[in-house]
Specification:
- The chain is mainly alpha-helical.
- It has four domains: about 200 residues, MFS general substrate transporter like domains (Growth Hormone, Chain: A, Up-down Bundle); about 190 residues, Growth Hormone, Chain: A (Up-down Bundle), CATH 1.20.1250.20; about 90 residues, no CATH class; about 140 residues, no CATH class.
- About 65% of the residues lie in helices and about 5% in strands.
- It has 29 helices and five strands.
- Strands 3-5-4 form a three-stranded antiparallel sheet. A two-stranded antiparallel ribbon has the order 1-2.
- Helix 8 runs antiparallel to helix 9, helix 12 packs across helix 14 and helix 20 runs antiparallel to helix 29.
- About 40% of the residues are buried.
- It is a multi-pass membrane protein.
- InterPro entries: MFS, MFS_Domain-Containing_Protein, MFS_trans_sf.
- One of its GO terms (molecular function) is transmembrane transporter activity.
- Keywords: Membrane, Transmembrane, Transmembrane helix.
- This is Major facilitator superfamily (MFS) profile domain-containing protein.
Length: about 700
């Protein structure tokens, strides 16, 4: 094809709307982008990074106290060893990752640099025993915290995974990271047993230093995987039309956002407090060994992970703010079980404490899930990335503070501290929770061009037409329903339409002829075709008073037909010139509807106009058949199929991607509709009807979300 022919071909396309084929091609491209998945090797490495991050934090919990005491430190120092990693991860690590990515550093380069730092930090941690320096431990854990690549996995998923698959992939990423809470104490116990059974005990390798050597080797292998198998995500192909955070006059610092950050902080603080408290209680008070403590902690966290996954499925049944309230008060109630009710630790008392810790950790996990999900929803869209980063910082600081607080708490203060914390959080959510409303972006701000508005509407989960219901000055004719082209772009409807209808029969004609009593296509105030489901009142329209109909028809010229009447007469004669047709099908034929609405309201039956104005040429029989008086046919064909439960409305001309590249001849359309059963829909029609009704119901449900 020569350049000139390309230009002519582009000029031959409609300037104001896409053709049917263009709509289908555009939808195919958008579906491809929204459902794209990265190479599985890269995705697995990104998820593995989240697993290593949590593992590197918790694997030293069981041995940190003993390691600190070996180097001449106390319990508070051991808590600091655990707390330094998440604290410096929040203070320096996450801001550093964010700055590097914003400066153009690729995700692969970020992973390589951070993994190299983690290898070095774990080696220094393992060599602290040889150096006999407790400050070497602090330096090592600080370096590990700075090099924890907290943003690597989520940023890669956001850039490489299509929006339709992103939620599911992020759920898997969260589940993998949560599994590390179980793997950390389990690996700690196995490493302790390995060193003990082999009687390895020297200044370089012993039960206290082996977690450092193990994590250094693990991160080194991870580094090799990143170098040889990881691929950077492709650049975004869809434009970002949201106003920038700097240009926006809105603020994300609302009461609701502060509550989300507080809930996330408290939830991860609870996890660290409970884990450190349990290790100290088991080893110092109950007299358990390190392997026994680690194994019980692994079993405890495995059950917590399972309950967290189950609760995440049930969470969909509860509204986010209400779910955050319920999970907060539930955590407060579970903390009561961890009180030491007897002066002596009996088996029953230890069992009750373990059960309380189990339910407390499970409830705090649900609090974290709700807080993490709510934060991006209640801020303006241009702040979503920033809100996600701040939410991650709150979670990270919670882990660090909790590790230090857990060392300081005793069996008499642990339950009281958490009970008071969650009751205070519950009270704040109950009083100030009105600020946790979802932020819905608008697509028609004055700063946006028409092209940007159109792109925005296509990219939003909630069509902007739905927002018109909330704005003053919009009446029934406003954008209060989905446009016809929105319905036509739905993949399932497009597929079912292609399977049922011939290429030259528009979907709108099928709607009006077959299910016009349930669905109406009408023009809004802007002249755009929109689709609505008829209400029960619309389906039971009262019969028009005969006096009103007579007055309307009497107002027409008595000696001649008007130009509009001549157009309607031609449309009727064209349909019935060769064969009789049912009155209903003639009334609902697109050409008849278009011509009739130019001068008659819908309340005037077509039968009355035929009898009064062109009765000499066309007659309507007693069985509601329309035929030409000059027709020579003696045998009438069967009636065309009626519409379901009422009459359809709306102009019949195909708009916005409906199939009307060329208009079908009346004979072709008649043959198609005559092939359908008159009294019921076929199975294929039922499926298409249900798909359209489901689309309309889903669209209506999301307009208030």
């Amino acid at each position: 094809m020569t350049p000139m022919s390309k230009e002519k071909w582009l000029q031959s396309l409609p300037a104001d709307e896409l053709t049917g084929d263009e709509v289908e091609l555009r939808q195919a491209l958008l579906d491809f982008l929204s459902e794209r998945m990265p190479p599985w090797q890269s995705l697995c490495i990104a998820m593995y990074s989240g697993f290593l991050l949590v593992l590197n934090l918790d694997i030293v919990v069981s041995t940190a106290d003993r390691y600190a005491q070996t180097l001449g430190a106390d319990e508070a120092f051991s808590g600091l060893v655990i707390a330094l990693t998440p604290l410096f991860q929040g203070l320096i690590g996450i801001p550093l990752n964010y700055w590097m990515l914003q400066s153009g550093t690729s995700v692969k380069t970020l992973l390589i640099l951070m993994a190299s730092g983690s290898v070095a930090g774990n080696i220094v941690y393992a060599l602290a025993g040889l150096m006999r320096s407790r400050y070497a431990i602090l330096f090592a854990r600080t370096l590990i915290g700075i090099c924890q690549c907290q943003l690597g996995g989520p940023i890669y998923i956001a850039k490489a995974v299509g929006v339709k698959k992103r939620t599911k992939v992020m759920f898997v990423f969260s589940a993998v990271a949560t599994f590390a809470l179980t793997a950390a104490p389990l690996l700690s116990a196995l490493l302790e047993t390995f060193v003990t059974e082999l009687r390895i005990e020297n200044l370089v390798l012993d039960a206290d230093t082996i977690p450092g050597w193990f994590m250094a080797l693990t991160y080194y292998l991870f580094l090799l995987k990143v170098v040889f198998f990881f691929e950077n995500p492709e650049k975004e192909l869809l434009p970002d039309v949201s106003p920038s955070a700097e240009e926006s006059q809105e603020s994300m610092w609302t009461t609701g956002f502060f509550l989300c950050l507080s809930a996330g902080f408290v939830s991860t603080m609870t996890n660290s407090v409970a884990i450190v408290y349990f290790v100290k209680l088991a080893q110092h008070t109950w007299g358990w060994s390190v392997p026994d403590t680690a194994l019980v902690l692994a079993a405890l966290m495995a059950i917590v992970c399972f309950l967290s996954l189950v609760s995440s499925r049930l969470a969909k049944l509860v509204e986010d703010r209400r779910g955050l309230q319920l999970s907060t008060i539930s955590a407060a109630g579970c903390s009561v079980l961890t009180f030491q009710f007897t002066p002596v630790w009996s088996v029953a008392a230890m069992g009750l404490t373990l059960a309380g810790l189990l339910f407390l950790l499970s409830s705090s996990s649900v609090v974290k899930n709700y807080a993490y999900a709510l934060a991006p929803k209640i801020v303006p869209p241009q702040f979503k990335d920033r809100a996600g980063t701040l939410n991650m910082l709150a979670l990270t600081f919670g882990r660090g503070v909790g590790a230090q607080v857990g060392v300081l708490l005793t069996s008499h203060t642990f339950a009281a501290f958490l009970l008071g914390t969650y009751l205070l959080l519950f009270a704040c959510i109950s009083v100030f929770g009105f600020g946790m409303r979802h932020s819905v972006p608008l697509c028609d701000t004055p700063e946006m061009s028409q092209r940007q508005q159109d792109t925005c509407r296509r990219s939003l989960r909630v069509p902007c037409a739905a927002l018109d219901l909330k704005r003053p000055g919009k009446g029934k004719g406003g954008a209060s329903a989905p446009l016809l082209n929105e319905v036509l772009r739905d993949p399932s409807i497009s597929r079912l339409r292609a399977a049922l209808l011939p290429y030259n029969v528009p979907l709108q004609e099928w709607l009006e002829a077959r299910i016009g009593g349930e669905i109406e296509v009408r023009a809004n105030q802007k002249g755009q075709q929109e689709m609505v489901r008829r209400s029960a009142e619309a389906e039971a329209e009262p019969e028009p008073e005969q006096e009103d109909v007579g007055e309307i028809l009497d107002a027409l010229p008595q000696d001649a037909l008007t130009d509009e009447e001549l157009e309607l007469r031609e449309s009727v004669l064209e349909l019935v010139s060769s064969q009789a047709m049912s009155l209903h099908h003639v009334s609902q034929h697109p050409s008849v509807l278009t011509a009739k609405r130019k001068f008659l309201p819908d309340e005037v039956p077509l039968r009355d106009w035929i009898d009064r104005r062109i009765g000499g040429e066309v007659e309507v029989t007693e069985d509601d058949r329309v035929r030409s008086r000059t027709a020579a046919t003696e045998e009438e064909p069967p009636a065309a199929p009626p519409a379901r439960e009422g009459k359809g409305k709306g102009k019949a001309k195909a708009h916005n991607g409906d199939r009307a590249q060329g208009h079908a001849s009346p004979t072709d359309q008649e043959n198609f509709f005559l092939s359908l059963p008159a009294e019921k829909l076929t199975d294929a029609e039922e499926v298409l009807r249900d798909a359209i009704l489901n689309f309309l119901e889903h669209w209506t449900a999301e307009e208030c979300s």
